[in-house]
Design goal:
This is Guanine nucleotide-binding protein alpha-4 subunit. The chain is of the alpha/beta class and 468 residues long. The protein has 3 domains: 1-7 and 25-51; 66-93 and 315-467, 3-Layer(aba) Sandwich (Rossmann fold); 96-129 and 144-300, no CATH class. The chain is 50% helix and 7% strand. The protein has helices at 3-12, 16-19, 27-59, 76-87, 89-93, 96-126, 151-159, 162-174, 213-220, 241-247, 249-257, 259-267, 283-286, 295-300, 321-325, 351-363, 380-388, 393-396, 407-425, 442-467; strands at 66-69, 206-208, 227-228, 231-232, 304-306, 329-335, 372-378, 433-436. α7 crosses α11 (249-257). It binds guanosine-5'-triphosphate and magnesium ion.
């Protein structure tokens, strides 16, 4: 804020003497104060923007309440981010500092998974041949790995260990400590490199959907010296996790691009590039000291939400009726790339099958019989990559039979499957709305969301005419 403007307003303002800067203010104090004021204004502008967008919509009678449903990691939060990016981009961008920390946590988590895979490999190698588990005919249960780690690999592993402390710092920063919400927040366990792989795979930091974690996080970011676009990233703070991360940048790149490590990961069936919050291909940018997340980065960031959707199996209970009372539409997300994966909470259940069953329970629910349901067959990009890299759809979805293992055929099959359930299990006649989506692609997603909103607004108007 220019100083001239500030002193001009001070003159006519009867309260000015209360808010006026202290006479003894030093240059540094003044700079800090002005930055704090500018920061406060930017945040307040962002809030105003959000409120006025809602007011405009309310005036036009265009508020449509949409409830997002789908299994964990289906893309609900990412879809919500797309809505926010469309309607209140300033508010979206005002949260970059928080998302930067989430992305850093995502990076560290990916590295931890690799380090654990290394440790697992070492542990296996250390088991003497005669002590290895065998089948009834005496052959080993898993053939011994021919991958040999070099001293360089082990040095790399040692040098990356400080990242595990960074993870703890980030988790602490992102957790609403003392908020009374901690019980709803699952903390990742303290790092333990010698543990078997899989111990941490299903543990993620999670935030409650009704809790403003970003607000808490931003308040934690004290001593702001550097800021941009309404955000507050303190790059120069000695406890900025970005420091250790950037110091480890080269080693992380070396680890991720090492052919032996890649082979080891594939031997253990770990496909980091298909997981949420994958940034290892952009380390040079993301792990740099002055890293600022782009819109795309924010859409790719992964932070688990605890909230309404967690209660999906109780949806039939009448107690849930109020939730749906004023909901104009349900947006159901099914991550169709998950055809070869199992649920984290139950490894015996195929994730695609789980989505299909959940879809069936939603469309057949009597409470929702009059609600419009829109289906997003999501993560099309990952599905394409998987099919192209040779993963066979029919190996996991037996009923697919010997149809071609390509996008056209699999997507057609899936769409028909979901449509059929919709038709057979809807208690009332209703339209089947279905889109193939990659909700991490903001441009493509916004087209679909605009189209969706138009449809729903039109539909609601039509319904209110009928009622009137
Ligand atoms: N490549 C790709 N990644 C996606 C897509 N949709 C979502 N993701 C990523 O998948 C991860 C999970 O998405 P979320 O939006 O957090 O999933 P969610 O449904 O909110 O999950 P919970 O909060 O656990 O219920 C995030 O890292 C997203 O960026 C997609 O279409 N393509
Ligand atoms: Mg979520």
């Amino acid at each position: 804020m220019p100083i001239a403007a500030l002193s001009a307003s001070t003159k006519d303002d009867p309260l000015a003497h209360i808010t006026a800067p202290p006479v003894s203010e030093t240059d540094a104090d003044r700079r800090a104060r002005l930055e704090a004021e500018a920061e406060a204004k930017r945040i307040s502008d962002a809030i105003d923007e959000e409120i006025s967008a809602e007011e405009r919509a309310a005036k036009k009678g265009q508020i449509v309440k949409i409830l997002l449903l789908g299994q964990s990691e289906s893309g609900k939060s990412t879809t919500l981010k797309n809505f926010q990016l469309m309607h209140s981009p300033k508010a979206f961008r005002a949260e970059r500092a928080s998302w930067r920390a989430v992305i850093q946590l995502n990076v560290v988590r990916s590295i931890r998974i690799i380090l654990e895979a290394l440790a697992e490999h070492q542990a296996q190698q250390n088991v003497p041949v005669h002590a290895r588990p065998t089948t009834a005919n005496g052959s080993p249960v898993t053939p011994p790995s021919d991958i040999r780690l070099t001293p360089d690999h082990l040095k790399l592993k040692m040098r990356l260990t400080p990242l595990l402390q960074v993870e703890e710092v980030l988790i602490k920063k992102l957790s609403p400590a003392g908020s009374g919400e901690t019980e709803a927040t699952q903390l990742a366990a303290a790092a333990n490199l010698t543990g078997p792989l899989g111990r941490y795979k299903d543990k993620e930091l999670a935030v409650n959907s009704s809790f403003a974690w970003k607000g808490v996080f931003n308040r934690l970011m004290t001593n702001t010296r550097d800021s941009f676009e309404g955000d507050a990233i303190d790059y120069d703070s000695s406890d900025d996790p970005g420091r250790v991360i950037s110091a480890c940048c080269e080693d992380m790149i070396r680890l991720w691009t090492d052919p032996t490590i890649r082979r080891l990961l594939s031997e253990q069936a770990i496909r980091l590039e298909d997981m949420g919050g994958f940034f290892l291909d952009s380390l040079e940018r993301v792990a740099s000291l002055r890293y600022t997340p782009s819109d795309d980065d924010i859409l790719r960031a992964r932070l688990k939400t605890l909230g309404v959707t967690e209660y999906r199996f109780n949806i039939k209970e009448a107690a849930w009726a109020p939730y749906f009372d004023d909901v104009n539409a349900i947006l159901f997300l099914a991550p169709i790339s998950a055809f070869d994966q199992a649920l984290a909470e139950d490894p015996a259940v195929n994730r695609l099958e789980d989505s299909v069953l959940l879809w069936k329970s939603i469309v057949s629910n009597a409470l929702l019989s009059k609600t419009n349901i829109v289906l997003f067959l999501n993560k099309v990009d990952i599905l394409r990559q998987k099919l192209e890299s040779g993963v066979k759809f029919a190996d996991h979805i037996v009923s697919y039979g010997n149809r071609p293992n390509d996008m056209e055929s699999t997507s057609h099959y899936l769409r028909r499957k979901f449509a059929q359930i919709h038709k057979e299990h809807s208690t009332k006649d209703r339209t089947f709305y279905c889109h193939f989506t990659t909700v991490t692609d903001p441009k493509a997603t916004q087209h679909i969301l605009i189209d969706l909103q138009d449809t729903l607004v039109r539909k609601n108007l039509a319904q209110s005419h009928l009622v009137a």
